[in-house]
Amino acid sequence: MSEYYPLQLDLKIIFVGNGGVGKTSLTNAIMGRDISEKYLPTIGSTIDKKEYYLEEKEITIAANLWDLGGQRKFNPLNPSFFRNTDVAMVVVDVSEPEKSIVNLKENYLDPLVQQQIGESIIIIVGNKIDKDFNEKLLKEVLDQERLGGFPIIFTSALNRTNISNLIHFAIYSYLVEMSEDLMENKVDISFHDFLEVVNRSKEELDNIPVNVAEINSKTIKQTAPLKISERREEERELELEKLQFLRERLEDLNAIKEQIKLSFKKNISNVESLIASLKNTPIETLTKKIDQTLEQINFFKDDFELKLNSLLEITQLEDRLF
């Protein structure tokens, strides 16, 4: 009996751009891997696969992420890298627009067009919004390099800002663009199916990209995390606050333990007093006195158990805190 394999829809998504703009960091962020702050050039290209399984349709969308190193001395352009590209992520460093955007069209967009039978979806990825950048200069360079007509999505791979938006928009755009071709090839899938899997709405994804005229560093910064230096300082302050809280909590716990110890001693003393009192009780009232004493001893017994449980809970809490 032959095995049944669900259908897989493969997308080729390439990440291109000059060296040091964060292409590898973006693919690492999409794949959920750690991001290194130290820059190491990518030698050649690497390919990752991000999969989304559409259970009802029994179809897997496989986004193949191609990361081409931007250092030309290490990576002479290989035409096979551009062939059959579905989505091209053209990555720029917003903090260094002149350096990162120069020659993008010549080095990447023109070869992409030459190798493609059809048209690829092109998205400009403005990466490194965790850094300061010059809004006016960025707009000027994008227009100068004739990149202003493409949708732009701003990201920070380091802080993982807009990473899900980026990959979701890329796949969504492909499914919208290729809807007729998919139907002709009897591939029973639409962008609605994908949106349901990732729990997004069409309106939400349509509003993710901006154009050059809409670039605003202030509004972009509002959605971006703090700069790394500021974030570290805030983390350090939070850590100090946490340590202070733990110290205060420990002092509270120690004070509670001391109270419990004192209460233990006091209750033991009370039991001793009860026993001593029984010795001096007249015979005619001894039975009644014994009943009263037993009642109080039972109270102390319950109190002992409560305090013992409290001590155990405090010890467990201290273990969790430290």
List keywords for this structure.
disordered N terminus; 322 residues; 6 strands; six-stranded mixed beta sheet; elongated; Rossmann fold; 15% strand; 12 helices; alpha/beta; 2 domains; 53% helix; single chain
**Rg result:** 34 Å
Structural class: alpha/beta
The residue fraction in helices comes out at 40-55%
Order of secondary-structure elements: EHEEHEHHEHEHHHHHHH
Arrangement of strands in the largest sheet: 2-3-1-4-5-6
Total discrete domains = 2
- Beta-strand fraction estimate: 5-15%
The CATH architecture category of the largest domain equals: 3-Layer(aba) Sandwich
Sequence stretches where pLDDT stays below 50 over 5 or more residues: 1-5, 224-231
Number of helices: 12
Verbal overview:
The chain has 322 residues and is an alpha/beta fold. The protein folds into two domains: 7-225, Rossmann fold, CATH 3.40.50; 234-321. The chain has twelve helices and six strands. The longest helix is centred in the C-terminal third of the chain and has 52 residues, at 228-279.
List the helices and strands and how they pair.
Blueprint: E1 7-16, H1 23-30, E2 45-54, E3 59-68, H2 79-82, E4 87-93, H3 97-101, H4 104-115, E5 121-127, H5 135-144, E6 152-154, H6 163-177, H7 179-184, H8 191-198, H9 202-206, H10 217-223, H11 228-279, H12 283-321
Parallel strand pairs: 1-3, 1-4, 4-5, 5-6
Antiparallel strand pairs: 2-3
Helix pairs in contact: 6-8, 11-12
